[in-house]
Write the structure tokens for this entry.
Amino acid sequence: MFERFTAEARQTVVLAQGEARTLHHDRVGTEHLLLALADGAPGPAAGVLHRHGLDPADLRRRIVAALDGGALDQDALATLGIDLDQVRQAAEATFGPGALQNPARRPARRSGHIPFTGPARKVLELALREAVRLGHREIGTGHLLLGLLREGGGVAADVLTEAGADLPGIREDVVRLIAAEAA
């Protein structure tokens, strides 16, 4: 499928893999695609997201909070007389290294391909469908954003909704922009 992607869309996928590595995730999810589209990917998606008041740093903060919402608060536990380091050591001695680690935060592969989550694969498929629906031969970053909006069930959709994004408005702006580029 990537043969139909523009250079910018391919770069977005590479950036999404980099985002997953940076966040120590072992899969590329919709959240990583959103971060790549919002911060660094060339093409219309970043501009549309910015015009709708979506700041990459704020999106990153929201994504980290969404994924690590259940993280243990060492200071709060200390006020109760619980030493998190001792608990962690005991758990790792019994169950192995990383026993208390959130599976989404386990160290990712440092090099090579990082697989996509089901929702992220769906975004790529929907991006293709959006390009076909619009009569475009190639899949660009705008199509990726349209696929992300259409998927609607991943972490990225939750974060965009929480940020108060006007999803129909973003979709309308992207469609208008990529139609103008194709003309």
Remarks:
- Residues 2-69+109-182 form a domain with the Double Clp-N motif fold (CATH 1.10.1780.10).
- Confidence is low (pLDDT under 50) at residues 103-109.
